[in-house]
Design a protein that fits this description.
399 residues; alpha/beta; Metallo-beta-lactamase, Chain A; five-stranded mixed β-sheet; 27% helix; globular; disordered C terminus
Amino acid sequence: MSVDAPSQDQRWPWWPLLPLYPYGCRRTLVRELLPGRIWSFEQLQGVWYVAVPIRMTVLKVADGLMLYAPVAVTAEVRHQLQQLVALHGPVRTIVLPTASGLEHKLPVPAMARAFPEAEVWITPHQWSFPVALPPRLLGFPAGRTRVLGQDGLPHADQLRWLPLGPLDLGLGTFLEYGCFDQATGALLLTDALVAMSSEPPPLFDADPTPLLFHARDRGDEPLLDSVERRRRGWQRLVLFANYLRPAPLDVASLAEVLRTSLAPGCRHSRAHFGVYPFRWRGDWQADVGALLPPGPPRIQVAAVLERLVFPRARPALLAWLRQLASLENLAWLIPAHYEAPVACSSAQLEALANELEARPWAPSEGNWAFLAGIDRTLLRYGLVPSEPPGLAAPTPDRS
């Protein structure tokens, strides 16, 4: 299988600030999600071939376009946006709907420079680490940057804005603004909810290398391409992305890694020269089945958020989910990661809230053990609060 070299249109000059795969080269898949109304700009992001989709949603508003959760601003992205501008009017609004997601925050200043007439709206409680910097020094343009809630809300006659938080994370604040387009029934979210498929997304069609890399069992296996190997690699990536170190994964010793390195067929950078320290036990597919049950993609809270962001904030999350469930004419969910659009109803969100309320929250066993260890370490050093956030909403009375 040959892989085309990236064109200049796919390069993102700011990648050294956030060195995530595919580093300085990003392809963008543009899809029309709801005809004449909502479009998706999708790129890959990840570390060491653990790559998942990240999405900017473009929404038609009364006088032009709104960009929700910008992605990396490549020449390809600018070209595709200009095509939409020619049909639907100028980019009026650029929205950063999260206070903590660096992969969503970093592209905003570049997108603002690409569209100098657009207003920029950001959530309150923006933060940086290790030094707290004001929005101006984080790159948000002075004079046309507004704060959601504090300075009003953009396109309030058309859109409903639904904040989750603020929640105290210790080092910073979690705050996410959902956006509900009342005309289409589409709910735009960033990170709080996802829907994942057991099949790899079409974004990998241009270069399936991450899937083929993780479909292997040893570093000396060549990167062979097939539908089944792509599916296998994707399902392992989903386990990685949700649990960081899922239970059926073992890490090989350095001696074993070296023994399988530089094997014939693997002596090139795409195969990382045969360096592959992971060993998957035979029961790993059972864990995939639990996370990705058969049927349409299931709306859920990603495990990494439940265990590291929301472990002591279940009441606030439940209250927010039930607020979303009260939306009239809710029909679609469009998150910034994984599948979109996903059919979504008030009954589904109410059922999700009931399920999360009834089952053990933020477990510490099995696939959750590695995440739980990170949380315990953060608690031990006082980097995250040990009590529920003071600003969290109470659990609704279900009696």
